[in-house]
Amino acid sequence: MEQNMEQFKAHTQVLSESLCMAGSFAMKCAIELNIPNILHARGDNPVSLQDLANSISIPSQNIDMLRRVMRILANRGIFTQPAENVYGLTTASRLLLFNDSSGMSPFVRGCLDQTLNKSWYYLSEALRSEEGITAFQLANKGKILWEVMKEQPELSALFYEALGNHSVRTMEMAVSQHPEVFSGLESLVDVGGGTGSSSTVITNTFPEISCMVLELPHMIATIPSNEKVKAIEGDMFQYIPPANAMFLKNILHDWNDEDCVKILQKCREAISSQTNGKIIIVDIVINSCKDDKKLTELQLMYDMLMMSASPSGKEREEEEWKKIFLEAGFSNYKISPLMEACSIVELYP
Fold this sequence. Notes:
There is one protein chain. By secondary structure, this protein is an alpha/beta fold. Helix content is 49%, strand content 16%. The model has no long low-confidence stretch (mean pLDDT 93).
């Protein structure tokens, strides 16, 4: 009997793993139909299935399909269902609202984009390949992600919107949960800081900090320069301007160990003339919260995403990070997990 029960659980697990994408694509469907915003517009008043169908112009013959989409999302905690065929928002679905600078709608649509998802079908082929090619490249005729985005401006816009929104939310957690990391700094270089979303959160919270966003030429125009955030054109492998702190958010996970060492050595040079200079890294440290299996699973999913799309990128465990830090000439570090996949790492020479 016990063996039969174990078999039943295993059978159910495999079925669930095989079909888990159904819930993800149901969430994408709800976003595309603008359902979170429709429910949000009603305030605290739950919305009936019929009212919801009328709001998004669902043909009468398809209302049952809408009910089934809402049923699985309510079961997964994305929406509430206080009564039969009546729905409302949860904390999770509030993250899916459009026109929210830290909302997760672009991230969901990006992760489930058809072009990006093709790579999963080539994962086993990539593992067998002796050419060091990624699943994404196999799915896109040898092209890397950045080349494909140049050809598809809509995908590029979605990608950077998703990164920017996700960055804002992560940084809001970082400055709120660990203000001591940034307190007392006067200057900071946001190395490879993209559109400057992280620097904006930092300067909004700590107006005494002057931030410089170091980026490549094609990104400079996207950075909103102001009194506190200054865009600087440059290459982190060549030169990084001096400041109290170097800040690297989701940068090192794009590079192999050797290149990470080179980047950190350039950062070390940039703080060498500073009193109490340090490097601040916001990145995933796998198994940072050892008792939280769900969080570790999320971190491992990020690593699979990096493996499928990035020729040299990966998420790392603490021992892997430590090896890089020591090779780059750093003797001391401190890891502070955030209430999400990333941690803040303070690195001292």
